[in-house]
Amino acid sequence: ILVGGLEYFPGTLHIYSDSALTLPAIIGIGAGGGVLLIAIIAVLIAYKRKTRDADRTLKRLQLQMDNLESRVALECKEAFAELQTDIQELTNDMDGVKIPFLEYRNYTMRVMFPGIEEHPVLKELDSPANVEKALRLFSQLLNNKMFLLTFIHTLEDQRSFSMRDRGNVASLLMAALQGRMEYATMVLKQLLADLIEKNLENKNHPKLLLRRTESVAEKMLTNWFTFLLHRFLKECAGEPLFMLYCAIKQQMEKGPIDAITGEARYSLSEDKLIRQQIDYKQLGEAGTEVPVKVLNCDTVTQVKDKLLDAVYKGVSFSQRPQADDMDLEWRQGRLTRIILQDEDVTTKIESDWKRLNTLAHYQVTDGSLVALVQKQVSAYNIANSFTFTRSLSRYESLLRTSSSPDSLRSRAPMITPDQETGTKLWHLVKNHEHSDQREGDRGSKMVSEIYLTRLLATKGTLQKFVDDLFETVFSTAHRGSALPLAIKYMFDFLDEQADKRQITDPDVRHTWKSNCLPLRFWVNVIKNPQFVFDIHKSSITDACLSVVAQTFMDCCSTSEHRLGKDSPSNKLLYAKDIPNYKSWVERYYRDIAKMPSISDQDMDAYLVEQSRLHGTEFNTLSALSELYFYINKYKEEILTALDRDGYCRKHKLRHKLEQAINLMSGSS
């Protein structure tokens, strides 16, 4: 570089080709791009596979939905068809059936002392002379109103005097006073008046009165109605109640009933509904002696029960043979007879489950001949045995295909796992408590709600019988039968008590009457028809009757029931009917209130007549002996209470009781 006289050398300039990245950078970028490309390809493959799986799942769900829809349609179609045909069949089947009413004594005993077959009040008291003398003195004291009231109130004040004791004392008193019903009624009215007073003093809601059996008076009231409504049951209300029982029993037996759990294809109770598809076939309807219909899924005991039901139709349950006393023979040819049993060497065992034998298990075919014969112990003990008898049983049934299914009574025995083998018995459905359900079982339970349509079908079939019973109970003059005097007399008494205490709320009066008669008497009878009739009540029949009884209680209530999707099925089942039933109850109470009052003289005459008719049903001394147990247990408290009361002191009731106590202990 020349600038004027200066010369300058800045250095050497090197020019390279244009390159933005180094070789390592290029290699790194290439490797990163490759990894990214592989990742994108992997994501695309996974997405495609996921989409294919989703499509497959969607198709499977669509197929399940289609199956569910077809099953729901089939169930609804079956339910509708059953609804159209069953009512006529039930009515025809029950024509001419004799009603097996219990005798007055057995009927009253089952209500007063449920579950006790041989109660002491039915037997003669075998006791020394001093004991008998003491009991007669005790009887005189019980016939003194002030002593009896003091005795009852003192017992109720004791903490150890349990609910069971209250019911027992009430029943023993009514048994002991059966020959003096007019006196028992006077005492009952006083006890009820005292109970109302106590209820108001404790500031309890008036509607709670008579709701539960928390006093001797409440159980006495139940027994009082039991005594005085027996004739009304026999002449009027018993028939629709028995028809309802028969209708429920026959409708349940049209489909399979699980002999272990008591669940059934047809039910009013959601808890006792079989929620699985049970494949079954109908066998037989004609025979040489008695027409019978059975199912191939019935256990041997269920078949025996069905045969006995058919042979002894109209005969009291206690008067006929029991299934356990009979053998079921399958007759093949002229000589070969196979005795069928619920369990034998052919019984199938899977894992720890043992399945009861059914007609299908034995491959009993259409046209086969079976006979019910007296049990042969030796033959019964030989599993899968053959017996050769010379004469045929008079009870035989030829099994042929029939148009309608039927099944046998399920007794729902409580069968526990075998302690030695650990096997558990099952029939149609395995107990839900066990977790070893097969995948197929779980799958069928996913759609179990569709079987609830059967509740509606069963309800529709039984509707006529429920309506007949409710209409009879809530009518003042049904089928020419007048309203029992006891109902009018007690309702008027409750109205008098409400007037006396200035209770003007109509809902309170309505509730008192509902708690007094429908809830204390009718609900008990509806749930337990075996208290009125000589019959057997199976677990599925019991569950259905409980739904009817709950409906009966709901229609007597003054409160509005708000129903939603979480409401119990039994409430939803009769939701549309209850307003109509409520109007029947209200009309019934109004009609009774309008009827002319019954004078005390007329009522006493009626009660004296009842005492004359039934005064010897129970052994009075035996009832007094049972009551004396409470005198002995609470002796000091009762003697002290007698001392405190002015009337009791004036009439020396403590002294008389001490005399009875001394006689009982054997001292002078």
From TrEMBL:
One of its GO terms (biological process) is morphogenesis of a branching structure. Keywords: Coiled coil, Membrane, Transmembrane, Transmembrane helix. GO terms for cellular component: plasma membrane; semaphorin receptor complex. Residues 99-638 form the Plexin cytoplasmic RasGAP domain. Residues 51-93 form a coiled coil. The chain crosses the membrane at residues 20-47. Residues 268-372 form the Plexin cytoplasmic RhoGTPase-binding domain. Pfam families: Plexin_cytopl, Plexin_RBD. GO terms for molecular function: semaphorin receptor activity. InterPro entries: Plexin, Plexin_cytoplasmic_RasGAP_dom, Plexin_RBD, Rho_GTPase_activation_prot. PANTHER family: PLEXIN, PLEXIN-A3. This is Plexin A3. It comes from Pogonophryne albipinna. The lineage of its organism: Eukaryota, Metazoa, Chordata, Craniata, Vertebrata.
